[in-house]
Amino acid sequence: MIYEEVTSGSRTRRTLTGTARMLLALKLDGPLLIGLSLVALYGLIVLYSASGQSLSMVGRAAIRLVMGGVAMLVLAQVNPNFLRRTSPWLYALGCVLLLIVDLTGYIGKGAQRWLDLGIVRFQPSELMKLAVPMMCAWYLHERPLPPSPLSLAVLTTLIFVPVAMVVAQPDLGTGMLIAIGGMLVIVLAGLQVRIIMALLGLAAIGAWIGWHFLHEYQRKRVLMFLDPQSDPLGAGYHTIQSQIAIGSGGPFGKGWMNGSQAQLEFLPERSTDFIFAVAGEEFGMLGLVILLLLYLFVVGRALYLAMQTQDTFARLLAGSLALTFFVYVFINAGMVSGLLPVVGVPLPLVSYGGTSMVTLLAGFGILMSLYSHRKLIGS
Amino acid sequence: MVRGVRIKDHWSEQRIFDQRVLIAGVFIVALTLVLIGRLFLLQVIRHDYYSELSQGNRVRIEPIPAARGLILDRNGEVLAANQPAYQLELVPEEVPDLDATLSGLVNLGLLDPDDLDNLRRTIKSRRAFDSVPIRLRLSEEDVAKFAVRRFEFPGVDIKTRQTRWYPNKEIAVHALGYVAAISEQDLDRIDRAAYAGTTLIGKLGVESAYEKELHGTNGFREVLVNAKGRSVQRQGAFVPKLRVQAPVPGTDLLTTLDMPTQRVAEEALGDRRGAVVAIDPNTGDIIALVSRPGFDPNLFGRGLTRAEFKALNEDVDLPLINRALRGTYPPGSTVKPVMALAGLAYNEVDPHAHRFCAGIFRLPGSSRPFREGRGGRHGPTDLWNAIARSCDVYFYDLANRLGVDRIAEFLAPFGFGSVTGIDIGGEKPGILPSREWKRKSFKRPEDQVWFPGETVSFGIGQGYMLVTPLQLAHYTAILASRGKSYKPRLVNGFRDPTTGQIRHIPPVQSAYLKNIPEEHWQIVTEGMMGTLKGRGTAAATAGRNMTYTIAGKTGTAQVFTVDANERYDEKTISERLRDHSWFIAFAPAEAPRIAVATIVENGGFGSTGAAPIVRKVLDAYLLDAEGKLKAPLPAQDTSRGPQSRGARPATPPRTVIPGGGSAPPPDLELEEGE
Q1: Are A244 and B53 within 8 A, CB to CB?
Q2: Degrees to nearest 5, angle at CA A172 with A166 and A177
Q3: Does the domain formed by B259-622 have CATH 3.40.50.720?
Q4: For B35, which of A231, A234, A292 is closest by C-beta distance?
Q5: Which pLDDT tens digit goes with each residue over B545-596?
Q6: ipTM
Q7: What are the start and end residues of each CATH 3.40.710.10 domain in chain B?
Q8: What's the rounded Cα separation, in Å, for the pair A126 and A122?
Q9: Which residues have a Cβ under 8 Å from the Cβ of B254 and sit 6 or more positions away?
Q10: Distance from CA of A244 to the nearest CA of B (A)
């Protein structure tokens, strides 16, 4: 696909194919693009069934995919140096927007995640999913690694401030994901293992304290995770129904559009957060393993690209984006199959709705830019 | 590591990064394997179990509603019980076409077409898998009608559920409140999961205030249902483990109401509009709480049609309004005892000096006359006579000398102008006028000034002052207990429905006016006793054949302002414009066990309208079948049983002189007067 043999006269030359040349010109990475497309296609197929054969919902999801694709394409063209220089500004902008959202939410006395810009509604916490790892990578890129204790303190603050504002919205799930994105940068920067262990210990203590600040419904979700059977009518309902859906799917599934749990509406939020269970019911273990392998391929390729980049900023940012993607997948699949508490994290590129699809693809656009703009030495 | 000399080592960083990515890769693979392992457990090992749950026979979780707690009166009589009844329920997710189903049920005569909009909204607001009651209390005929056509209505079924039954119908309805179907607004303030399976929720009074205790905790049971959602018995080898969790029934409430007294009070008011509140001055326990007209609370449990509700809601006599807590009226002469106390406290009155009542009072330098309410004149009048014979002129003069500021300050601790804090809530605070109140309440600057003439009317409880019957009963109880103010309450204990164990709540003393000396209370009490003796205002109506002592006070609240130079003639004024009739009393006067306030709307003079009702209530509570005074119950009578847990004595002995002996904790003390 990449190379073709061209025979002219007596010499046979290997040259890039037309497709490869085009991808190169567009600064895109072919294998990653294929992986993402396959996952997205899989998602649309499941969504058609999960939405109760609603073509309009599939259409809307496809439009979002195209929007995400455009964002990816545009970001892939941006020079990484420019991205690096704008990181602090983007981060500051995000913080200001979050503050505005929190304040309007406080005045309006309710959950507030959106910023209404008239034509479009915009979720600043989504921006932070990219801005926080960018900021962390920017901060570390000219400092010696592994990071010094002082850098570590600065980075912790940089992560903690926006996360606290997102959790206050209240949106625990997104806040957690942003924190993970930032922390992965630090880990990839070579943070010593003993410090990681110590921080994990601190996090456990922090979680214990944070428990007292959680909203009632958030606490309930955590408690339900520990024993979902204790409240089958309330918070445990989701987990029980999704496990029935997955389990009844068996090794090979009940067939597309034949999942009784999903089609008879036993399964709540079946086209959004719990779509993994629909796939499990209709395509069985085989279908889920294929989906997981597709995800693994995407993550693997993304990590490979990250290793190929040449400067600290690019490496850390690309690595963090790739790993965060896997974290999404694991948390969603884990919560739907009953391994983790229900935290409201969508299945990347498959779950319907939200701006998260656009953000994810934008992230991959950045990743491709970081990779494709590297200076080719001696080629 | 040496500080300051660290420089970037790109090769080492690349190495560290690659190493980390490698470790991350291992983690990723490991976590993916954990996921796949989980899927293997669910989809291969437990596949049979889950597919049984999902295919063909599916398990549905059915809530088992908890039995609502009973409500009892102080003698153990049941005031609110549970009764099984049939009701029609609908599970939204099992109904293929909601509109067709509903209109089908209307055609069968099971639903009222007027209610459809409300019903649709209620159904939408519930979760798709919840069973929503759409018609309560079906008759046998309705049940039969539906049974034969059941196959036409998938997702709709008849359920046997407990409904609420009030055996005394409209007696005490305003105290007890009622239950009705859970509305959209209710859903916002309750935990939906906890109310899955519950049909009725408390709406007013005790039923609403103690909803949490009465409701209990619903249980659930897993049932096998076939594809049409009907419950089936499992046949074959595979029997999934079905779990059952029994509900925890709601707590029984012990109310302070005494039903024999309550009934007498209801009957005595009869068809007239008004309210009666009787309080035990030693505890704040409410013995009777009447507001008439009332309504039958059973109607709401059955489910009112829109037309029925409209009729009730738009009745000119306002049967849905709890007059005892929400009706505000001028107190009229019933404020005179506390005015007298104020006069004594501020040393503005010598109780034994006579003042001449010529039937008319004028402010110095003003020609505007303030007339004696009933016309006539009392001649030379001392404080005793001024209370017993309700002399307006005496109190016009007293109020003028006290001034509005001192009156307002003195009256506030008696509970005027603020809510009493009754446990069922929903009461109005009324108005205790003052200069400051007037400044805040009026818009135009010229209206914001307090006029001396307004102080004069204030002295006999006319003008701006407004009270609720509950406030007046509360105030009477403070007069009776000589300064001790207890929070009025309708519930003083909980009974565990399974063990029968009773938990009492000690009375709550909200204030103690200990700075008023004993002799002041005595003077006022004797004046009030005079009301029912000799030439007292209520001697002829409520004071006849007394076998025990009563201290009382009549009051007449103006509905219609009579011009200063005219006379009020009861006969020529249409019924709705006639004065409201008040009577307050406590008895036995020397050791009070009950304090009562009664209003009869448009009942005319207090002596003729309200006083006879109060006498009947006092007799009912205090006398036994032979007409003899019942032996007083022990000091902590109404608290029923020993109170081991209360740290402070709930009821100080009655003989304790205020200020001495068992003083309440300091935070409850109120400084009065100078």
Answers
A1: yes
A2: 80
A3: no
A4: A292
A5: 888 999 999 988 877 555 445 555 555 566 677 788 999 999 898 899 999 9
A6: 0.89
A7: 259-622
A8: 8
A9: B72, B74, B491, B492, B493, B494, B495, B502, B640
A10: 5
